[in-house]
Each structure stands twice: as structure tokens, then as C-alpha cells.
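As noted in the main text, all predictions were made from sequence alone. Below is one such record, for AMP-binding protein.
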Amino acid sequence: MVVVPADAETLLAALPDALAGQGPALLPVSPETEAEETAFVEQAGGLAGARAAVAASTAVVVRTSGSTGHPKRVELSGRALLASARSTNAILGAGRWLLALPVHYIAGLQVLVRSLVAGTVPVVLPSLAGGAGRATGHFTAEAFTRATARLRAESPDAPLLTALVPAQLHTLLADAREHAETLAALRAYRTVLVGGQRTDPGLLDLARARRVAVVTTYGGSETSGGVVYGLPDGTQRLVADTRLAVIDRSILIAGSTLATGYLGDPARTAQAFVERAGTRWLVTGDLGDLNEGVLTVTGRDDQIIITGGLKLDLNEVTRVLHELPGLADAVAVPFDDEKWGTRFAVYADGRDRTIPRLTRDELNAVLRARLGRHAGAAAITYFSFGLPRLPSGKVDLSSLYETAEKLAGTALAVQRDRPPRDAV
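Prediction:
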């Protein structure tokens, strides 16, 4: 296994051999993780004495975002990556891609693999083209519009495709209110894949109302990228031979796109990848429903807390938050509390100052009316520059956990409402 800088040119040159099993496995790294991952490789598993070797079939190792503070190294075979890419190209149709996501994450990496399979070269957004994995700037609507114009000029007859995270789509649609060229750029794509995290239904409705061909995607590093595509007509398509199951609300996925496991972490591998009736399944950690073959993701299974002796599902709290003005992207983050056991804080994007901000009391009046007296938040905080995000576009939950933990013992947290009468 070799550590390589996460830039498109380097990976496009190295991926063919890795995918074919004729070269070493690749571990793409950002500047922030390069030293840690290099030490991991050079010390033969490095961290905490990990001793597992890379599987012979492994083509790429993808470090997860670590949005909850626990990064993992996912081993992906060439077979799994190619199965995903070939099926995606068949579902969406051949075309030329705009790369708008970092390639050390699975969504960006798969744009490269899909392009290699199709025999094309993607246009790389300037903010990702700094070389050696170094971004040259933030994602902007202007840069997206310019890159789209270049793509159209270079391939006037080819269908265009791109993959975005919800925050990027939100940026583009907001800019499109004032700049017609931004909307025209979005409409130039036959498919705009959106995934990596929850996408606000209102954002999807707005995109489709403006005739943007949005396709939602559900999956992750452990499934070589998206394996469930939500098409504009309301139907879903599964990638390759993907199978879905929901057991006790927990979503499981099987199929040829599954990862080999977590490098150097057999305990996590055994917990996440299980055998059932001769079939290998990934336990995703997500909750959902499966009705007539249509999957609906409802939350995470690690969002159940006990507060004041009562169970509270923060997935339900989040659903209520997202219905309130100005809280469409808000997150509920738990923290330990000496008296109640666990409490939660709410963090929201405060960039839009035209929307009135709810006070904690106003928010809690709604939460308690909908979910019970134990559902009050310890605090609500609006970030004037937006929620902290990882390079992948996901909310940086790890930093928010740290922020929430600082509430414990503060004057704000001490000013607790009395617990419910039936609390233990």
C-alpha cells in the first residue's frame, strides 16, 4: 500500500493498475491526514499496534470523514469499485463528469472510477486543483459556472454529470436567485447526484421546481459509494446486485460493492459486516423503513439517549427541528450531564439573518409539545458563518461534540428546567 496525494491527476494515473490488481493499493490523503497515514503505512499498521495487512484484493483504502470523531480506513477491492462504477454508468447513462468533491472521499473517488470506466477524463473544479491534495479555495457558484462552461466547450455533444453534497447544491440554488448563469449551469447537467448526508426535502423540491435534474444517492465508503439512487420520478434504482434489508429498523446492505473491511481493525469489521443465511451484510448504523422495495432513511441508531431517566430519540428531535424556520440544517448533539445523564444542544446555520432566530425557550416549547417534557434542549446556537463542515461537505460533528461537552457545568447548563415528574 502506498500513500498518494489526493489530487485527480495523480489518482487517474495510478488507479488503472490498482483496480486491475497490478499495482499497490492506494491510500489517498489530504494534507491534514498525510503525516498520520504515512506513519500508519510505514509502521506496518502503526496506530495502537495494528497488525493487519492489506488484503491482496484491495485497490484503494479510503479514510472515512471521521465526522463523529472516529475515523476508519475502509478497504475497497477493484471488483467492488468497478461494480459500482459500471452499474452507475448504466443507470445514469454515459457522459462526462465535473469533479466537485475531494477525491480522498468515496464520492469524489468514484467520479474518477466512473470516468475511467467510460473512457473519459473529468473536468476538475478549480478549488480541488491545487495539486498534492491541496485545495486552492472554497466551493463557489462562480467557479462551478466557469467549470461547467469549460466542460460544455470541450464536450459539446456529451451529456454532463456531476456529484455534489447538499451544502453545495444549496449554495448554487441561492446564487441562482440573482444570477441566471448559475441556474443555466445547473440545468446543463443531465444528472446532478446529491448525497453524502441528509438532503433537506425543501432543497430537493426547489431544485426540481427549477428543473435541475437531481438524483439522490444513499451509500458510503463501505458500499463503494451510493447504492440506492432516488430518481426524479420518485422511483429508486439499486446499484449492481445490491440487496436491502431492514431488521428492527436497522438498515442492512448486501452485494458486490461491499468493502473488504476496516484496515487493521478486526473488531470493527466483525461488528459492521455480518453473515446471515450465507450472505454477507453491512450493518450501516442507519435506521429506516423498506416498503415495497423503497428505502426511507429515518436516522441513526446512535442517536438514542437517556435524559432524566427517559428515552429520547434525537432523530425525532432533528425531524422537528427541520420543520422550523431557519433550522432546516440544524443538528442535535448530545453531551454528558451530571444530573440528567445526557442532554443535547442544538446548532444551526445562522447566515440568513432575514429569518428570525428562535430562543431556547421558544424552541423548547415546540419540542416539548411534540415529543414530551423531557425533550428540551440545553441551548441553541446559531453559527454566523455557517455550521462547521469537513472537506467532504458533511457537518463536522466531532467539533460540535466538543462544543457541546463544554456546556456541562456551565452557568447555561446549570439553569436546567426541572426534569419530568416521572423521571427516575
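The radius of gyration is 22 Å. The chain has a mean pLDDT of 87. These features were considered when defining construct boundaries for the mutagenesis experiments described in Section 2.9.
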